[in-house]
Amino acid sequence: MPLNASKLADAVMARCDELAACSEDEHRVTRRFLTPPMREVHDRLSGWMKAANLEPRVDNAGNLIGRRASTHLDRTLLLGSHLDSVPNAGRYDGVLGVLIGVAIAEAIIDESLPFHLDIIGFSEEEGERFSMPYLGSSAVAGRFDQNWLARTDRDGNTVSDAIRQFGLRPEDIGDAEFSTDHVIAYVEPHLEQGPMLEQAGLPLGVVTGIAGQSRLRLEFAGTAGHAGTTPMLGRSDALLMASEFIVEVSSLGRQTTGLRATVGRVAAAPNAPNVIPGRVELSLDVRHVDDLVRERAINDLLATGNRIAKAAEGIFSVLETNANAAVSMDADVSKLLIASIHECEQRPLELFSGAGHDAVVMAERFPTAMLFLRHPGGVSHHPDERAERDDVAVAIEVLCQFVRNLAKQHQPNQVSSS
Ligand SMILES: [Zn+2]
Fold first, then answer.
1. CATH architecture for the domain at 5-210+326-409
2. Distance from the CA of 381 to the center of ligand 1, in angstroms?
3. Could you give the CA distance from residue 381 to residue 389 in angstroms, rounded to a whole number?
C-alpha cells in the first residue's frame, strides 16, 4: 500500500477510542448537540487538525471546520460527517468519517490543491437533544429554519440557549451557510450500518441514494371487554387486529425488493391482563429508494389495515404521517469515487442507504457522495459497533486518490468539470 495509510488508520482507530471518552455518561458514549463533551471533542480534533495543517474554526451552528486554504480557486471540497451520537452509542458512527477526513489532510500535507480542503464535523445529525435531526448540516446547506431556534430539550433549554451556552451566536447562524458556487463537492465517509458489504466481502461501497422514509402513527379501535365473560366468537380485539396487521407489514416488506417496513412501537389500551384490548396505537416506518414504491406500499398497507378492522368490526385510523423523499447522490462525484476505488485495485459495491445521513441535507444543495465502510456485524447505535482498521486504511487510500483526481479536474489550466 503506498503512502502511510496503514499508520494513519492506526491513528484514526486510536482517536475514535479517545473521542469515545468525551461523553455525557461515564461508562457509555452519549454526546448530544453542544453538550459539554462536544467542547472536549472540538479541542482534541482542533489539535489534530492543526497538526494536519488545517485551520480550525467553529461556526454558529456548532460545526467544527478545519480548512487548508488554496490560493488558486476560492472553492472548496468538503469531507466529513457528524460528531454527535445517540445515547449509549458506538464509537464510530459519524466520528469515523471526520477522523478519516483529518487523516486525508495529513496524508497529502505536502501536496498543494487547486481548491480549499474543508474537513467538517457536523454538530448534530442524530436529532437526540431537540428531536430534530441534521441541525448542523442544515445550517451549512442554508436550510436552517429560524423557528427551530425555539425548540426545547427535556430540560427546557432552547436550541438558541444551547448555541449561546457553547459561546456561539444563534442570531448569526445564517453565517454558517456555504454558497452553492463555493462547494465543489461534499463527500461523507461513514460506516454502512448494515450487512451488505460484509456479505459481499468488500471493504468499501459507494452510495447511490438514500431511501425515502414515511413514518405513520396508526390506531386500531375495537371493543374492550371482560377477558373471562366475553365469548371468543364475535370479539372486537384491537390487539389481534394490530397483530394481523404487523404480520402483513412484514410480509409485504419481504415480498417487495428493497422495501423496509417496520412496526417498532405498539401501545395497547387498557393494557391489562384481564381486559380485551380496546385500542392499539402503533408506529409504521416504511423506506425505499424509489418514492413510488414506498407510496404504493403505504397505500397497500392502509388498505390492509382497513380490511382487517372491517372484518373484526373495528375502526382503523391514521393519526399522523411524516414523509421524506428519497435522495440521489451526485452521479459525477460518485463516478469519480468509483474510479478512485478501481485505481486502488479494489472493487466497489454500489448500494443504497436505508439510514439517513447529513448527506441527505447536503445533497439538496451541493454535489454529494457517500463512501460506506464495511461494518463487521452490522450492529450500530450500540456499544458493540465495530470498524476494521484495514478497511479504514483502504478508505484513506481511496479518498486520497479521489482528492488527487478531483484536483486534476480543477487545475487552473483545466476546464472545470463539476
Ligand atoms: Zn451517522
1. 3-Layer(aba) Sandwich (3.40)
2. 9
3. 19
2 CA distance to ligand 1 centroid (A)?
Answer: 29
Q: CA-to-CA distance for 136 and 61, rounded, in angstroms?
A: 6
Over the stretch 329-342, which tens digit does the pLDDT of each residue have? 999 999 999 999 99
How far, in Å, from the CA of 196 to the mean position of ligand 1? Answer: 17
What mean pLDDT is predicted for residues 90-99? Answer: 97
In the reported structure, the alpha carbon of residue 415 is separated from the centroid of ligand 1 by a whole-number distance in angstroms of 35
Contact (CB, 8 A) for 210 and 326: yes
Q: What is the pLDDT of residue 3?
A: 66
pLDDT digits (tens, 9 = 90+) for 332-383: 999 999 999 999 999 999 999 999 999 999 999 999 999 999 999 988 889 9
pTM, two decimals, is 0.87
CA of 261 to the centre of ligand 1 (A): 21
Percent helix, strand and coil across the chain, each to the nearest 5: 40, 25, 40
Ligand 1 centroid distance, CA of 193 (Å)? 9
End-to-end CA distance of the chain: 29
User: Could you tell me what percent of the chain has a pLDDT over 70?
Assistant: 98
* pLDDT value at 101 more than 80: yes
Instruction: State the fold for domain 212-324.
Output: Alpha-Beta Plaits (3.30.70)
Q: Where are the domains of the chain?
A: 5-210+326-409, 212-324
**Distance of CA 348 from the midpoint of ligand 1 (Å):** 21
Output the DSSP codes for 229-263. TS-STT---HHHHHHHHHHHHHHHHHHSTT-EEE-
